[in-house]
Structures are given as structure tokens and as C-alpha cells.
Description:
With 321 residues, the protein is of the alpha/beta class. 33% of the residues lie in helices and 30% in strands.
Amino acid sequence: MQTPQSDTVPSVKIVPRETLAKSRVLVVGDVMLDRYWFGDVNRISPEAPVPVVHVQRQEDRLGGAANVARNAVAIGAQAGLLCVVGHDEPGERIVGLLGESNVQAYLERDPALPTTIKLRVLSRQQQLLRVDFENTPAHEVLLAGLARFDALLPSHDVILMSDYAKGGLTHVTQMISKARAAGKAVLVDPKGDDWERYRGASVITPNRAELREVIGTWKSEEDLLARVTKLRRDLQIDALLLTRSEEGMTLFSDEGVRHAAADAREVYDVSGAGDTVIATVAAMLGAGLPLAEGVALANRAAGIVVGKLGTATVDYDELFA
Ligand SMILES: Nc1ncnc2c1ncn2[C@@H]1O[C@H](COP(=O)(O)OP(=O)(O)OP(=O)(O)O)[C@@H](O)[C@H]1O
Ligand SMILES: [Mg+2]
């Protein structure tokens, strides 16, 4: 939303492929597998009044932090992924899909953990049921992840925290302060109402509902600016990028307020657009671009990705076409 005090983001400039290829993003957070079972329904079960699905096909996609990392690679950066998975079939599937996506996986294994999986059962384009498996990783495994984080810091330019509230980011506050002390930018895609845990982050990228949970409902753009300014000051967060679905996105920083109108031509599938946004901003910061230019490119990437069915990534050629 443009107001008298807000400016627009700069127009996008082409970033050479070689520059982007040097950008090294470390994604830390909660990974999940999005699984889809497609089948036919021809009868009602004799056991209970429910349809019986005869499964014909299974499709798996990387979700959560793994989808973020995949997006960073798709636009041409390098991405490492630090997360916890179980010792099970979905965990192996995630390993396989990360390999196909050229994401460098740094996985901590928790033998007692069911790897997070969201299973959808569909018939004739209709979702019949969703089944979730998830749990919080064990304490020792999370501590091992924290130690691994220290080792990975020097070889990455930008750190990206992808929080889906599954427990993978239990030590996020410590990770942020270690990364900032090492001079690295830290981006956070937040979850929940306790943002004290993200204290000291460089950029936080909530959507409207996520921000409302923390600062309440704003009454005008001026009111929003006042609330965001106070929040940034209280938590020592340099910048806040509010993603506003069909209203585009707004960047709040010490340099002022800059808005980018949504630039989607067609909208087919908005899920995962937030992952594309933060992955693009991180990749561009790692390539040395100023934040506002990274945001302009993230807005363009989001406009492309919402026009796609299925593949929730944008590649270099599409972004700079
Ligand atoms: N309906 C839409 N029309 C045009 N652009 C959209 C639409 N929805 C999303 N976008 C683009 O995608 C960006 C991110 O979307 P949104 O604010 O919905 O993030 P999000 O809720 O975190 O998404 P998700 O969690 O599903 O990945 C927006 O800032 C905008 O650029
Ligand atoms: Mg989101």
C-alpha cells in the first residue's frame, strides 16, 4: 500500500549469473515432506461411513526449509540446509529429493523422530483427508545441530531461518547472535507470537497474519509503520519485509518504507510464495546486492511463482527474462 511517506522499491537490475553462483546461503529450520496420494473412489467402506480410496499414484515434494533451500538453488545461488530428520522412509525421500535439487544437505538424524510429513489423500481433484506425522526433535540432536551450525558459519554468506514451529529452531536466538557476531546477515521467516527468540535478526519476513499476531491489527498505514518501528527497535531487528499476498510487499527499515506492488499476471497457486520471497532476498544479499534491490527481485520472483501450478520455484532465466 503506497502512502505519502512510502517509496517504491528500485527497478530490478540484472545480476550476472557468475555473481549469483558465488552466493552461499545456509538455510536452517524445519523440513517436511509434502506427499500426495491420488486414487479412485468407487465404494463406501463396510467398516465405517467413509470412502475407500484405491491409491494409483504418489507424488512427493520438498516442504518447509527444504523448499526454501531448493528455491535459492533454482535462482542460481548455492544453498546448504541444516535440519533434523528421522531414520525413516520419508527421511530418505527428503535426502533423495535434496540431492536431485542440488541442495547441500547437513542432516542431523534423530532415530526416535518421525520425519515431518503431510500426507494428502486426493480423488478427482478433491482432497479427502490430510494426515500429519511430526514431533519435536530430541534435545541432544538439537545441540549437535547447534555445534554443526558453528562449523558451517564461516563457509556461508547469509543465514536463513525457516521456522515452521516443529522444534528445529529451538536454539535460534543463539544461532542469530553467533551469525551476527561473525558479520553474517540473518533472515528469519517467523512463526508464532514469540518473536523475542528472533532478537537481533537482520531481516524478518512475516505475512499479514503472522505480523498481526505480534503487533495486533493496524488501523492505517501510518499506524502500521508506528507499530513496526517500535517492534524493530524493541527486538533490534534491522528490517521487516511484510508480504501482503495480492497487495505485494512492504519493506520497513531505517531507510524508510518501500512498497512493491504485486506483479503477478496470473495467479494459480500461491502456496510457497513466501518461501520463494525469502530465498530470493537471501540469495541476493549473498551476492552483495543492497536489501531494497533484493526485495525488488523477490517481488518479481513471487509474481512468477504464483502463476505456476506445482513447481514452486523460479529459475535464473525466468527471473531475469
Ligand atoms: N494472490 C496473489 N496475487 C499476486 N501476488 C501474490 C498473491 N499471493 C502472493 N503473491 C506474491 O507472493 C508474495 C508472498 O505471498 P504471501 O504474502 O501470501 O506469503 P506467505 O503467506 O508467507 O506465503 P506461503 O506461506 O503460502 O508461502 C506476496 O508478497 C506477493 O508478491
Ligand atoms: Mg509463509
